Amino acid sequence: MANLMKVVRLGREYIKPSIPTPLHLRNFKLSLLDQLAPSVYASMVFFYPMEFSHGNPIIEARHRIEHLKKSLSPFLTDFYPFAGRIKDHVSIDCNDAGLEFSMAHVNTRLNDFLKRPNVNALKHLLPVDIESRNMGMAGDDQLAHVQTNTFECGGVALGICWSHKITDGGTVSAFMKGWSDIASCSGNRVIPEYLASSLFPPMDSSIIQHSLKLGMDRTSTRRFVFEASKIAELRTRGVSKDVSRPTRVEVVSSLLWKCATKASRANSGIPPLSVMSQSMNIRKRTSPPLPNTTIGNLVGYYVAKMEDNNDDNISMCDLVAKQRQGKTEAISNYAKKLQGKDAYSVIRDLFKEAGTLLRRDDVDFFKCLSTCGDGLYDADFGWGKPIWQSLVSLGYKNTFALSQTRDGNGIEAWVTLSEDDMTIFEHDLELLSFASSNPSVVEMNQEKELFRGSSQDRDIMLLTW
Fold first, then answer.
1. Which of 212, 182, 174, 240 is nearest to 394 (CA)?
2. How confident is the model at residue 36 (pLDDT cuts 50, 70, 90)?
3. Is the separation of the CB atoms in 390 and 117 below 8 Å?
4. What whole-number distance in Å separates Cα of residue 159 and Cα of residue 135?
5. Is 427 a catalytic residue?
6. Can you tell me the distance from the alpha carbon of 349 to that of 330, in angstroms, rounded to the nearest whole number?
7. How far apart are CA 114 and CA 46, in angstroms?
8. Which of 124, 164, 374, 421 is catalytic?
9. Does the annotation mark 54 as catalytic?
10. 3-state class of 15 per DSSP?
């Protein structure tokens, strides 16, 4: 019988740095790339089972949550901008107002939730409404929000939303490693670097945002998992004279791009030009290279075009080669040009070109982002690494969000397409020969070992507040 899942918020408070931020650090300058970042959230959920409990698992979960709150204060002493507030389009007021920390209870067991992950359910484990049209406006000037969700078994889901104004994948990685190192008393300490605005100076407040507007109407999101053995097969198919060693992300994103294009063309009846934009970390591509712990939006983009209109002629090796060519050109030009005096013009022209493609009726524009290799499964707060870590889709049409699986060898993809295109895409035989559609996060034969409590099977059909 279907189980009605409810998430009830119990309260919230604001966690401040344990040491006040010095006056000379109170005015944090955004970089040019921060200024042009969209007013959206980067959102993730980390799941921690209660594997061993010597007493009441709910009480033990409360102790863990108190420990999380206490560890945030010393963490925010170094990561102080996240306890501040967005002041204007140029700066952050690092006033130690605090990071919002919410607590919630979920009326089901974690293993039941993980048997059939649902994107709509994931959104309710987050501290804010990530699809609100008001986010990023005056009503929300915070840089990060945290919510702990305690399940009936004592398992905890940690939902975090970061403002994209100073956050990219590299920033998320530094944030999670820094916080978990302090909480676990590992003896390590992540020192964040705030160098982005010196390399990419901000423009004045009159700057015009050129962030891309992606559609959200009538979209559908599905989860697909690629195991290591299947990725190895894809990499073999992706080899060509131009690319002898394709990466995991290149071959998985190429297959998703190919199948999504086929679905779109089947519905439209015409073969539109298909384009895919891929993001990349530019910290090591600037001159001089930046530390991995540099905070801010330090990403570049490259574009690949599928020029063949015959679906039968679309080959994996061609798509991988087009991606590699776009990436190579971006590496040699993008980061260096952004550090010059014409940086704003470079970005303006890049977004102008992409915007023109987005507005064309005869173009399918896909966007891919990846957190593979960011080490997010290393977020151990003292009670083990997460059993699952998931990106949370914003619901934007034609997007692929990739992350690595817990073993580090596979790739998980959240794919968002129009409802009509998804109907065809999710049944594509080539796709399903390499990917599993929304498999259980926890194997059935491991559940008794990982979770305590009843083995009754319950499906989660609906989530309400």
1. 212
2. confident
3. yes
4. 17
5. no
6. 14
7. 12
8. 164
9. no
10. strand
